[in-house]
């Protein structure tokens, strides 16, 4: 909006005509005005634009573009019947949109999503994006809808940005520093396979974006009133007041328009040949490196500008603190799908002044086999470390021959990042995320159980690297349940004892289950929701995780900016790390059957207690020697083999270890604090 009206502008290089349709509100069946643009007055180079005076906030609008329809030769897909949503719309409404009616019956008048004219005023009350050092970051991956949609969540506005505000005390008590929100840009909830739609499923996760500047209307309480930005900003401001940063999971690798059979919502109708990667011979074929029907042509100059404009908008106007890029390696490809050594869009993001303080995180692979963990273009980019996940999962389930690699992963994955001058903070460490088993399912299932997704159990990965502890799925066997809890504690303990940035999946701290479904992308129901009754049911696990996070926070030696070297640092006479096995100084790197590892971390400053960690993933108890020093006493801080509350002990209640060796029980680990 401007002082004298609203300035509308869209990019469409090959359009020959344009109309702007204005609707009074969300439920208006017909536009109150259709404005035909004069190309001699309302077109400048590739942009169509006009100023509409005295247009009130809350007005809804769409575009219709005229032009050639020649998808196979030039990639043009203009259709003057289809109303398109403005790619730059700050708010969108989807009450008139019916994807499957469009697919089955064809274009129907006024059936498209609509942009909304929003008021600009907002009082940030001094709020700014947070600037927390990367090494201090602890990420909590959250689905906005699923976090509070369960009937037992106890919030006034379930499944919304405002509902999440009510859970801030829980987040603050947990101790995390940032929440990473699964997609919150406007997405098409109806983008599911036809069989799934007929079965009542919908696109729950949101990896089907079409409105890159608009908060998702489904997460707003009153989207029909154009409150998108206010509600989102209220959430960000409230989280910042609690000291919690906001990272957005963003999807710039594909859109909800799908392949050749998918509907035209936005880019297809404005500039299909510009915005998508198309086959070089038959431009009616979409190159699909994402598994979702299309691939955004991210390194076209205009598309790069669009992506950067969107990111900078979310930082500048919405105060977010960073971004996680879904299937980011797809953004490293050129228009023909070839990987680029220096993709312009990735370097523009890295070097943007506006994004200089923002966390930028890559899912460093795509669905067509491009895997760039450790080699993602750029230096500032952090990466979801899939190598870390796989190694730790295998080690904890009992695989042998992994001890040297486990030590490398615990040390920040120097093999991946050190040679090209990157840091431990380039590694986002995780053992679970939204994609795959939850933590409890990882220790309860050997196989995926995805029949509820209506795809014949074909969807989701088969390579889970999981172990069910002897029984598949639910059981009442006490020994099995006890082992599963211990394994869950082992996985999380290793995560929070590792150099790099830990990421925790929401619900893992209370052992949330998805009943063995490792791909609940379409399950907007109790299978995909956070069950708040587990906070009480599994209170001992919640206490354990809170204690783990507190342990990490009080030890700067777990938050180093540089890789462990085995040398003394920061003026200390002690090495930053010393590796052991059952015997001090003997880690047995070359033993292919080895399943034990111990290490001592020297203090990062004079006020810090030392740490000694003993890990035994074998099926039998092992006796570990303890380092002996004249001026240091060791105290037991953590033992995953113990039941609560002695599994994790606060410093004030810790007991002195008086022996020179400790028995570490099978499939467990112990942590000592020295002071």
TrEMBL record:
All residue ranges annotated as the Glycosyl hydrolase family 13 catalytic domain in the record: 141-552
GO biological process: glycogen catabolic process
UniProt-listed SUPFAM superfamilies: (Trans)glycosidases, E set domains, Glycosyl hydrolase domain
Keywords of this entry: Glycosidase, Hydrolase, Transit peptide
Molecular function in Gene Ontology: amylo-alpha-1,6-glucosidase activity; isoamylase activity
Keyword set includes Transit peptide: yes
Domain of life, source organism: Bacteria
Matches recorded under CDD domains: AmyAc_Glg_debranch, E_set_GDE_Isoamylase_N
Entry EC number(s): 3.2.1.68
The UniProt record lists the keyword GTP-binding: no
Principal EC category: hydrolase
NCBIfam families, per the entry: glgX_debranch
Similarity annotation: Belongs to the glycosyl hydrolase 13 family.
Protein name per Swiss-Prot or TrEMBL: Glycogen debranching enzyme GlgX
């Amino acid at each position: 909006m401007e002082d004298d009206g609203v300035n509308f502008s869209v990019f469409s290089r090959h359009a020959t005509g344009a109309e702007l349709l204005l609707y009074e509100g969300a439920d208006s069946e017909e536009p109150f005005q259709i404005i035909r643009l004069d190309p001699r007055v309302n077109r400048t180079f590739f942009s169509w634009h006009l100023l509409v005076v005295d247009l009130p906030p809350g007005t809804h609008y769409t575009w219709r573009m005229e032009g050639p329809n020649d998808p196979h030769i030039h990639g043009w897909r203009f259709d003057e019947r289809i109303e398109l949503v403005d790619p730059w719309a700050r708010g969108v409404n989807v009450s008139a949109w019916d994807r499957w009616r469009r697919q089955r019956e064809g274009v129907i008048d006024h059936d498209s999503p609509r942009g909304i004219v929003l008021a600009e005023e907002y009082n940030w009350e001094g709020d700014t994006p947070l600037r927390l050092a990367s090494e201090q970051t602890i990420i909590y991956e959250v689905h906005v809808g699923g976090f509070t949609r369960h009937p037992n969540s106890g919030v006034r506005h379930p499944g919304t940005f405002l509902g999440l505000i009510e859970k801030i005390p829980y987040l603050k008590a947990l101790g995390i520093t940032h929440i990473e929100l699964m997609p919150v840009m406007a997405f098409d909830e109806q983008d599911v396979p036809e069989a799934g739609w007929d079965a009542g499923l919908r696109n729950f996760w949101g990896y089907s974006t079409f409105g890159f500047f608009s908060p998702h209307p489904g997460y707003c309480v009153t989207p029909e009133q154009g409150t998108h930005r206010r509600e989102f900003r209220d959430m960000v401001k409230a989280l910042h007041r609690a000291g919690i940063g906001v990272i957005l999971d963003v999807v710039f690798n594909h859109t909800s328009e799908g392949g050749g059979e998918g509907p035209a919502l936005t880019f297809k109708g404005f500039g299909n040949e510009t915005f998508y990667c198309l086959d070089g011979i038959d431009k009616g074929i979409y190159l699909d490196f994402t598994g979702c029907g299309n691939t955004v042509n991210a390194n076209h100059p205009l598309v790069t500008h669009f992506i950067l404009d969107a990111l900078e908008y979310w930082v500048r106007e919405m105060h977010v603190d960073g971004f996680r890029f879904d299937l980011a390696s797809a953004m490293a490809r050129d228009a023909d799908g070839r990987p680029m050594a220096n993709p312009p869009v990735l370097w523009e993001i890295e070097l943007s002044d506006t994004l200089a303080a923002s966390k930028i995180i890559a899912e460093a692979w795509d669905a067509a086999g491009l895997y760039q963990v450790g080699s993602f273009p750029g230096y500032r980019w952090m990466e979801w470390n899939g190598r870390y996940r796989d190694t730790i999962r295998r080690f904890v389930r009992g695989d042998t021959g992994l001890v040297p690699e486990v030590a490398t992963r615990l040390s920040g994955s120097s093999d991946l990042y050190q040679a090209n001058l990157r840091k431990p903070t380039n590694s986002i460490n995780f053992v679970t995320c939204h994609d795959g088993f939850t933590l409890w399912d990882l220790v309860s299932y050997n196989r995926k159980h995805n029949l509820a997704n209506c795809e014949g159990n074909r969807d989701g990965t088969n390579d889970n690297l999981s172990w069910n502890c002897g029984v598949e799925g639910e059981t009442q066997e006490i020994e099995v349940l006890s082992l599963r809890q211990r394994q869950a504690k082992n996985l999380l303990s290793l995560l929070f004892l590792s150099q790099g940035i830990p990421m925790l999946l929401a619900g893992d701290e209370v052992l949330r289950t998805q009943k063995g479904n490792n791909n609940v992308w379409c399950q907007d129901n109790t299978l995909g929701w956070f069950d708040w009754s587990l906070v009480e049911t599994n209170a001992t696990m919640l206490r354990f995780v809170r204690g783990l996070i507190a342990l990490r926070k009080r030890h700067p030696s777990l938050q180093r900016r540089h890789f462990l070297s085995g040398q003394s640092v920061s003026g200390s006479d002690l090495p930053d790390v010393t590796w052991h096995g059952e015997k001090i100084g003997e880690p047995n790197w070359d033993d292919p059957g080895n399943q034990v590892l111990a290490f001592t971390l020297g203090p990062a400053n004079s006020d810090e207690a030392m740490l000694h960690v003993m890990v035994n993933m074998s099926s039998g108890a092992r006796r570990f020697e303890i380092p002996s020093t004249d001026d240091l006493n060791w105290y037991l801080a953590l033992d995953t083999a113990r039941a609560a509350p002695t599994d994790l002990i606060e410093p004030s209640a810790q007991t002195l270890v008086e022996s020179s060796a400790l028995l570490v029980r099978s499939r467990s680990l112990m942590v000592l604090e020295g002071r």
